[in-house]
């Protein structure tokens, strides 16, 4: 059995290239004119390039690729920049309501004590210690002589800084994050699901294009049959008219033939409309404007090369298990459910991140005047303006570290979510089991449909030969005067019905073959 399966797979691989590939540029050339003349293989390749469903599916594949890159982004370094500016309109005294303010008021006394100590120890008889009030008066006079307002003379808050700036850069790197790593696996699995879906869509489109092409071809062949019948009946009506004029046939025979001709011409008009609609439906499947006229190259006929590549049910089933994209999707879905379980279980573990922060902080007052004593002169001062970006106003801050976050208890939510993941996996396994049985049944049914349609073709081939022979006899008898026009018309009608039945049988066989190829997952070649 194993050797038979391998042989079947090899045979299917050989015949999977029966559709000749054409390039996308060739597709554009084929569909450039107002009239599009195509074969079945060309119609399939045009659909693989232009079909709306496939074009949307390729966009879903691009979306899956973007989701993978997005998932990887969660484990890349995260860099954030920030900036702020604050204008302090009014700043409260931080020492209001406490005795700490007296400490700062005593700073002036400290300066006075330092001055007196220097005067006492400098060895100069001209410098003597002075009182605190005199010290303050002389200091105030020095400020006035320099044209400088004494600090705090305006009653402003000495701790207030009007302009505050902060510019920061933060870098975070994930060291361990189980959910993020599992999310990457999940996104990659989702891409495989999308790829399988694209392949499933391709097979679906190929089947629909084949069915639409066969339907359009059947409608076209039916028109040809009816048109041929109308032409034969017109000849018969003319011969009947001459026979009536010669007195050989009655007027009833002529009227009957004319009524039958009108009815047949009406059927022909309806068939032509159906053929046009079938061609437009094919154009819709091919993704080309329905305003274009579609001409089909090919005939609806059966030959032995149309037999399925693998007709053994067991081998076909094994091939389907290996090639059908929906089966691969089910396996990928099971894997995705397992990954979702890993994501949920990762919540039992902590997340660890490394971080580095850099900040550039500025506290810039509106009044940037700096007062400094004049060297070598007592109670003499000078003032200078500092720039906005003076180093005394701006400072850097740098920090690095590790950050861990671990949820110890969340009310058993994670445990229940893990349980739900297990249920999802069991449901997916049940779906896979049902799918396996459904695939086997589908293959069995399609093979039986093929067998039934083939029997009908064999039967209709023999019946068509009999109908053609019967019509030849009726026509010859009519020409020899041994038969009637009614007999000829009946034989012609039987011939037309036999042709239509044969075409219907071939159509059913070809659509069944298309369904069979889809049921075993026959590969579809890419358009280049």
Structure overview:
With 528 residues, the chain is of the alpha+beta class. Helix content is 62%, strand content 13%. The protein has a four-stranded antiparallel beta sheet, with no helix packed on it. A two-stranded parallel ribbon has the order 1-4. A hairpin with a 7-residue loop joins strand 6 and strand 7. The longest helix has 68 residues. The two termini are 37 Å apart. The N terminus is likely disordered.
Observed structural traits:
single chain; 528 residues; alpha+beta; two-stranded parallel ribbon; 13 helices; elongated
Short note summarizing the structure:
The protein is α+β, with helices and mostly antiparallel strands. It is built from 13 helices and 8 strands. The protein has helices at residues 2-15, 24-30, 40-50, 52-73, 100-105, 107-121, 132-145, 178-245, 251-286, 313-323, 325-345, 413-480, 485-519; strands at 35-38, 78-87, 163-176, 293-296, 351-364, 369-373, 381-385, 394-405.
């Amino acid at each position: 059995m194993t050797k038979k399966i391998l042989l079947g797979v090899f045979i299917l691989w050989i015949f999977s290239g029966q559709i000749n590939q054409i390039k996308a540029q060739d597709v554009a050339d084929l569909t450039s004119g107002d009239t599009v003349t195509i074969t079945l293989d060309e119609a399939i390749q045009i659909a693989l390039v232009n079909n709306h469903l496939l074009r949307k599916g390729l966009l879903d594949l691009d979306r899956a690729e973007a989701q993978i890159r997005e998932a990887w982004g969660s484990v890349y370094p995260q860099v954030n920049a920030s900036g702020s500016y604050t204008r302090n309109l009014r700043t409260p005294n931080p020492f209001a309501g406490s005795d700490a303010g007296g400490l700062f008021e005593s700073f002036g006394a400290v300066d006075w004590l330092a001055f007196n100590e220097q005067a006492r120890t400098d060895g100069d008889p001209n410098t003597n210690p002075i009182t605190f009030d005199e010290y303050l008066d002389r200091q105030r006079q020095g400020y006035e002589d320099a044209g400088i307002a004494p600090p705090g003379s305006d009653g402003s808050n000495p701790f207030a800084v009007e302009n505050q700036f902060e510019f920061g850069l933060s870098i975070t790197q994930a060291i361990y994050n189980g959910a993020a790593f599992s999310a990457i696996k999940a996104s990659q699995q989702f891409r495989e699901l999308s790829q399988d879906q694209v392949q499933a869509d391709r097979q679906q489109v190929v089947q629909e294009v084949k069915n639409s092409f066969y339907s359009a071809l059947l409608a076209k062949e039916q028109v040809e049959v009816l048109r041929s019948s109308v032409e034969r009946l017109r000849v018969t009506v003319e011969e009947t008219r001459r026979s009536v004029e010669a007195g050989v046939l009655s007027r009833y025979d002529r009227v009957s033939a004319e009524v039958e001709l009108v009815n047949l011409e009406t059927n022909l008009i309806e068939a032509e409309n159906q053929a046009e609609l079938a061609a437009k439906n094919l154009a819709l499947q091919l993704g080309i404007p329905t305003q274009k006229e579609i001409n089909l190259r090919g005939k609806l006929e059966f030959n032995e090369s149309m037999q399925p590549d693998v007709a053994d049910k067991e081998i076909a089933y094994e091939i389907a298990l290996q090639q059908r994209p929906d089966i691969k999707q089910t396996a990928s879905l099971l894997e995705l459910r397992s990954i979702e379980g890993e994501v949920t279980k990762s919540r039992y573990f902590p997340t660890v991140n490394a971080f580095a922060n850099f900040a550039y902080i500025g506290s810039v007052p509106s009044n940037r005047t700096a007062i400094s004593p004049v060297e070598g002169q007592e109670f003499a001062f000078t003032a200078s303006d500092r720039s906005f970006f003076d180093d005394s106003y701006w400072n850097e801050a740098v920090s690095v570290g590790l950050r861990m976050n671990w949820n110890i208890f969340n009310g058993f939510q994670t445990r229940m979510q893990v349980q739900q993941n297990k249920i999802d996996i069991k449901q997916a396994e049940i779906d896979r089991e049902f799918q396996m049985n459904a695939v086997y049944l589908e293959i069995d049914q399609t093979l039986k449909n093929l067998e039934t349609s083939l029997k009908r073709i064999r039967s209709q081939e023999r019946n068509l030969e009999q109908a053609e022979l019967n019509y030849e006899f009726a026509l010859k008898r009519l020409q020899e005067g041994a038969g009637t026009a009614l007999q000829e018309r009946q034989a012609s009608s039987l011939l037309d019905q036999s042709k239509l039945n044969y075409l219907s049988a071939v159509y059913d066989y070809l659509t069944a073959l298309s369904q069979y190829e889809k049921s075993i997952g026959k590969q579809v070649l890419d358009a280049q």
